[in-house]
């Protein structure tokens, strides 16, 4: 229900009919208007304040910083404390994938746990919907911010060896932690409290 | 006519052609940079400091590109059209006093190739024969865009030749001479003597006319990309296209020189600024104006252009001549 109908602005009512004198003045005004020179002024202002107004990047030298929610190529993360693959091979991402492009091969290892043999994403089919990253209980599969995907073959991006952070890189502390949706906040350490022992 | 005179003239010709072809090419880079800044972009950035040496890869590209002559084109005419264009443009340059006389190594040099007493007439007449370039290119290319571009070039240039000549008639009546040096000397002694203040209407009309004759933006129907691809130059590639380009930009420089000599005080010194620097400053500003309007203004339709020319500008020009004549008589 509209309580106040006056909020509508009727454009037709705003246009007043002009008298011939007013029309003549309007024509003269528009013919000799300063519009062309206003245009010149605007353009030269863009040039003088170029440093402030610049809208483009000097691309290969400067790069755009993507949002943490940007969904670029997938990454498999390692656990920070142990360096093990975070993936527990639960298979949720494989099941939720609407493009049916994720495949996990697992086996039962000697210690009785599930062990991941291979994790592959078929980038021919992937639509980058982000469901796999959202459903992952361990933040193991995430979307990175790396948008420069040029390569000779798609395989360069799609199997476990490339998705997972290389171990030596991880040991150097070069794994870029995922800070997007679902990740612990930056001040998570301060928020941790001791578990009350007595209920 | 002794041999020393001939050598001096040929040297002058060589220097002027080399310098103007170079500047004409270099304005393309400056145009790209200025347009980019005005549109909040960076423009060419990789060659030299701030992309200022972009002309080198451009030249290499133009020189090494294949020279395609389309099937069905009239070959000799197609090949000679850009040459006609550039020769006419540079010939027009010969009657323009570029700088004041100066002395170097004890020799007094007057930087004008031919000091003829009908300077303006010569420049306008020879400059307008450059129209044959677009016309012949359009006819011989065997391409509808080229043909339309050529037809537009002819109609536009003929129309605006009238405006240019009529608008210049009033200042010429005041000065009583067609020589560009006489016109320059008429404006000696400070800004208040510049002809722009006594002939403002003629100045505006002449500016509009040269914008149309050099095919710059408000009147760039001849090669407007959105309508007729590239106009008369559609089928050209490589060096021939480059020659057309050089001719076009050289025409821009000539127009700037004409305006600054006839209306803006020419190469007379002002306050402490010497005359040579003065005219270069004015020419640089006028060329900047050409680029500036290209970034800011839309262009108009061919029929609007013709209407504008014959129904508004020509009556104004004739009125200006009449009023000037009456004032001179009284």
Automatic annotation (TrEMBL), chain A:
Tell me the residue numbers annotated for binding [4Fe-4S] cluster 1: 87, 90, 93, 136
Q: How is the cofactor bound?
A: Binds 2 [4Fe-4S] clusters per subunit.
UniProt keywords (A-Z) are:
4Fe-4S, Cell membrane, Iron, Iron-sulfur, Membrane, Metal-binding, NAD, Oxidoreductase, Quinone, Repeat, Translocase, Ubiquinone
Location in the cell reads: Cell membrane
Q: Name one GO molecular function term.
A: 4 iron, 4 sulfur cluster binding
Supply one GO CC term from the record.
plasma membrane
**A Gene Ontology biological process annotation?**
aerobic respiration
Q: Which reaction does it catalyse?
A: a quinone + NADH + 5 H(+)(in) = a quinol + NAD(+) + 4 H(+)(out)
Q: Which family does it belong to?
A: Belongs to the complex I 23 kDa subunit family.
Q: How does it assemble?
A: NDH-1 is composed of 14 different subunits. Subunits NuoA, H, J, K, L, M, N constitute the membrane sector of the complex.
**What is this protein called in UniProt?**
NADH-quinone oxidoreductase subunit I
From TrEMBL, chain B:
Give the record's keywords alphabetically: Cell membrane, Membrane, NAD, Oxidoreductase, Quinone, Translocase, Transmembrane, Transmembrane helix, Ubiquinone
The record ties this protein, via InterPro entries, to: NADH_UbQ_OxRdtase_su1/FPO, NADH_UbQ_OxRdtase_su1_CS
- Any stretches that span the bilayer, and where are they? 6-30, 80-100, 112-137, 158-181, 193-212, 241-264, 270-292, 312-329
Q: Tell me where on the tree of life, at the top rank, the source sits.
A: Bacteria
Q: Which reaction does it catalyse?
A: a quinone + NADH + 5 H(+)(in) = a quinol + NAD(+) + 4 H(+)(out)
Checking Pfam families in the record gives: NADHdh
Q: What is its main location?
A: membrane
PROSITE patterns tied to this protein: COMPLEX1_ND1_1
Q: Which GO terms describe its molecular function?
A: NADH dehydrogenase activity; oxidoreductase activity, acting on NAD(P)H, quinone or similar compound as acceptor; quinone binding
The answer to keyword NAD applying to this record is yes
> What protein family does this chain belong to?
Belongs to the complex I subunit 1 family.
Functional description taken from the UniProt entry: NDH-1 shuttles electrons from NADH, via FMN and iron-sulfur (Fe-S) centers, to quinones in the respiratory chain. The immediate electron acceptor for the enzyme in this species is believed to be ubiquinone. Couples the redox reaction to proton translocation (for every two electrons transferred, four hydrogen ions are translocated across the cytoplasmic membrane), and thus conserves the redox energy in a proton gradient. This subunit may bind ubiquinone.
What protein am I looking at?
Answer: NADH-quinone oxidoreductase subunit H
Q: Which organism is it from?
A: uncultured Campylobacterales bacterium
What is the taxonomic lineage of the source species?
Bacteria, Pseudomonadati, Campylobacterota, Epsilonproteobacteria, Campylobacterales
């Amino acid at each position: 229900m509209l309580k106040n109908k006056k909020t509508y602005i009727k454009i037709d009512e705003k246009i007043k009919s002009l008298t011939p004198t007013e029309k003549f003045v309007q024509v003269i005004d528009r013919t000799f208007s300063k519009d062309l020179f206003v245009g010149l002024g605007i353009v030269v202002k863009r040039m003088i304040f170029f440093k402030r107004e610049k809208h483009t990047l000097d691309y290969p030298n400067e790069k755009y910083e993507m949002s943490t929610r940007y969904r670029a190529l997938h990454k498999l993360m390692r656990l920070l404390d142990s360096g093990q693959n975070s993936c527990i091979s639960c298979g949720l991402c494989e099941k939720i994938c609407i493009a049916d492009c994720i495949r996990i091969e697992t086996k039962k290892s000697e210690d009785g746990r599930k062990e991941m043999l291979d994790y592959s994403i078929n980038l021919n089919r992937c639509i980058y919907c982000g469901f796999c990253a959202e459903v992952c209980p361990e933040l193991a599969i995430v979307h990175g911010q790396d948008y420069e995907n040029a390569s000779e073959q798609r395989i360069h991006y799609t199997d476990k060896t490339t998705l997972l952070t290389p171990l030596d890189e991880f040991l150097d502390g070069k794994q870029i932690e995922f800070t997007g949706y679902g990740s612990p906040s930056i001040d998570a350490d301060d928020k941790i409290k001791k578990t009350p022992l007595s209920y | 006519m002794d041999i020393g005179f001939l050598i001096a003239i040929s040297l002058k010709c060589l220097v002027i052609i080399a310098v103007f072809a170079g500047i004409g090419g270099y304005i393309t880079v400056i145009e790209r940079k200025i347009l980019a800044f005005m549109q909040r972009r960076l423009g060419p950035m990789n060659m030299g400091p701030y992309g200022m040496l972009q002309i080198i890869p451009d030249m290499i590209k133009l020189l090494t590109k294949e020279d395609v002559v389309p099937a069905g084109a009239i070959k000799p005419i197609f090949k000679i059209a850009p040459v006609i264009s550039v020769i006419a443009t540079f010939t027009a340059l010969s009657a323009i006093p570029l700088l004041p006389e100066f002395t170097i190594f004890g020799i007094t040099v007057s930087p004008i190739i031919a000091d003829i007493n009908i300077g303006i007439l010569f420049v306008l007449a020879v400059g307008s024969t450059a129209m044959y370039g677009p016309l012949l290119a359009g006819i011989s290319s065997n391409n509808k865009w080229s043909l339309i571009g050529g037809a537009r070039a002819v109609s536009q240039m003929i129309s605006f030749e009238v405006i240019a000549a009529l608008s210049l008639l009033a200042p010429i009546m005041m000065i009583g001479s067609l020589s560009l040096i006489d016109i320059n000397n008429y404006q000696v002694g400070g800004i208040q003597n510049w002809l722009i203040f006594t002939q403002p209407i003629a100045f505006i009309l002449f500016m509009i006319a040269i914008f149309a004759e050099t095919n710059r933006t408000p009147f760039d129907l001849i090669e407007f990309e959105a309508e007729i691809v590239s106009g008369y130059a559609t089928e050209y590639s490589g060096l021939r296209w480059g020659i057309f380009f050089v001719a076009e930009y050289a025409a821009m420089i000539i127009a700037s020189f004409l305006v600054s000599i006839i209306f803006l005080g020419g190469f007379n010194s002002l306050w402490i600024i010497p005359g040579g620097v003065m005219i270069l400053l004015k020419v640089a500003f006028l060329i900047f104006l050409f680029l500036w309007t290209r970034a800011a203004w839309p262009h108009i339709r061919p029929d609007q252009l013709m209407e504008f020319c014959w129904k508004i500008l020509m009556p104004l020009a004739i009125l200006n001549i009449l009023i000037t004549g009456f004032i001179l008589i009284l």
